[in-house]
Every structure is written in structure tokens, then in C-alpha cells.
Specification:
about 0% strand, mainly alpha, about 140 residues, 4 helices
Length: about 140
Amino acid sequence: MIDPQTLGEVGAVVEVAIAIMLVVGMWVVRRGHIRAHMYIQSSMVLVNIPFVLLTMVPYYLAYVLPGLPGEISEPFYLYPTIMLVAGLSAEALGVYIVLVAATNWIPERFRFRRFKLWMRTELTLWWVVVFVGLTTYVVWWG
């Protein structure tokens, strides 16, 4: 495993960069570049999956999970757990949005119609994850 503090620094930079690119994708679609928006947004959501699985999950399992549920009130355990739940929610919603917007794999009855609402919800949720992730970094390495 990589040194946890170094990984935390890399993780913070990567996750902030992904969140910034999601904002860039929002800006691009407002300029009428729908295809560029689609590529940016879906790429960021999909790039995040292996990054999280290879870098964040092993450290959560090694350092946080053993202290749960007894230590959940401690910031060392609480913030990464919030980040895990919010991150899973953001990633699942992001993948769902990509599937609805770019494929016919989702049955019609499960497809949403209000794209802006769901995409704005996703962007907000992503920034919550980034904020909690940065808070986790400060708590762990501050």
C-alpha cells in the first residue's frame, strides 16, 4: 500500500479535479456543446470508479472499518464513513444518469425526464463528497 498521507494528498487533488471538471461540463452544456458535456461528465464519473476502488476502499477497510460501529462518533471514523455513504450515492447516481442519458439499457418506466434536476443533484452531491473528503484529510493529517 502507498503511504496513507501521500494517498490522501493524491486523492484530494484527484477528487477536486474531478469535481472541477464536472463544473466545466456544466458550463460547456450551457454554451450548447452537448456532446462535449456528455464526454466530460461521463468520463469523470467512470474514471472515479477505479480510482476509488484502488485507492480509497483499501484504506477504509484497513483503518476505519475495524473501529466501527463503536467509534463512529469520533471524527477519524465519522467523516470517512459519511464520505463513503455520500460517495456511493454520488457514484451510483452518476452511473444511473450516464445509463439513462447515453444508453437504452434502462427500461422506460425507470428513466427520469428532468435531466437538469438530477444532474444538479449529482453535482451538489459530488461537492458534498469533496468537502467531506477534504475534511477527512484535515482530521487525519491536519
